Fold 1,4-dihydroxy-2-naphthoyl-CoA hydrolase.
Amino acid sequence: MAIWFSDVPLDTINERGAQCANGTLGIELLETGDDYLKGRMPVDERTRQPAGVLHGGASVLFAETLASWAAAHVVDPAQFHCVGQEINANHIRAVSEGWVYGIAKPVHIGRSSQVWEVRITSEAGKLVCISRVTMAVLAVPNRYY
């Protein structure tokens, strides 16, 4: 059974991300499954640190991007919106070129919070980073007091 409140429009999400950090770093959302959201990010001059490998901060931004979009699509957007509350990341392996792929899966989907695990892997399928992202689920403000 799928966790999504409604369809996850990947083309629309990618278009919205094109003019912000997502687009600047080349992040693309690729697919959804019943319980995951998958994307990719290039390892190039935009995402490497001076030592020539993927910057840990770029990995964290990638993880939060995936978890944020996933979180937003498991709630009713007319009633709720989700914001990042906490993120941690363990950087496991260096990557110097190509693409990294991230998959966000829920650990907990509750009424007031969500916890997502994001596993980032190399093109060879080796674990590069594992992150846990906590999202706060907030009520959409009533604008008609």
In short: Residues 10-139 form a domain with the Thiol Ester Dehydrase; Chain A fold (CATH 3.10.129.10). The longest strand covers residues 127-139.
